Amino acid sequence: MTYNVHGCVGVDGGLSPARIAKVISQYQPDIVALQELDVGRIRSGGEDQARIIAQNLNMEHHFNPTVRIAEESFGDAILSTYPIHLVKADALALKPRFSFLEPRGAIWIQIKFQNMTIQFINTHLGLNGPERIVHTKELMSEKWIENPECIGPVILCGDFNARPGSQIFRMMRKRLHSAQTRAGHSRHKKTWFGRWPILCLDHILISPEVEVVKIEVADSYLARLASDHRPLIADIKIKKTSTLPDYSI
Length: 249
Description:
Helix 1 (17-25) runs parallel beside helix 2. The chain is globular. The strands form 3 sheets. Strands 5-6-7-8-10-9 form a 6-stranded mixed β-sheet. A 4-stranded mixed β-sheet has the order 1-2-4-3, covered by helices on one side. The protein contains 6 helices and 12 strands. It is 18% helix and 34% strand. The protein has one domain: Deoxyribonuclease I, Chain A (4-Layer Sandwich), CATH 3.60.10. The protein starts with a strand and ends in an 11-residue tail after the last strand. The protein is of the alpha+beta class. Helix 1 links the parallel strand 1 and strand 2 (31-39).
């Protein structure tokens, strides 16, 4: 699952990490990529939203702050029912010409599942087109996706702030495949805006070893209220190869 939680503020104006956790629990994902979380911020009551959501779901988590001001943080997280091995949590390069924009980052974890290792990367790209291109080039470089450690099944997901036909999406698809396309959807399901989604901005991309059994955009009553984005959920399994058995996760 990938889910931009909008600081846990819903389209009804309600602030509730617990409600976000309830939305997630309705779909019982094993791994969750979250974007736009507050930790210790006055505007959200000083709560650690990542920790609250993870505790409510009994999942492990790692939070990556992309913005820090004094004791306040804002950023992204990964939650998992499996033990998390953190490979990297870092900022994406902030070029001088983009210095006025909100900093962006990514988290890369490994999930060991029996005798295989899954690479899982969560990111939240910006609203500025040229900046997204710079950050996508970085993500697809040896710093992340082309890193020698990033082998085996790879999942890259998050809020890309870009449509499926965008330049950055085409750049990513030189190496990875859209889970929605692999599931047989000719049109990508829309994930933004809350009650009546009009755009697909949230994506799950996968390497060839990953098969998509099912993909859906959450459409429960709570999912329509809890954030301005809807969660995107993919049920996947790993193809059999000489080294990787077939498992559903």
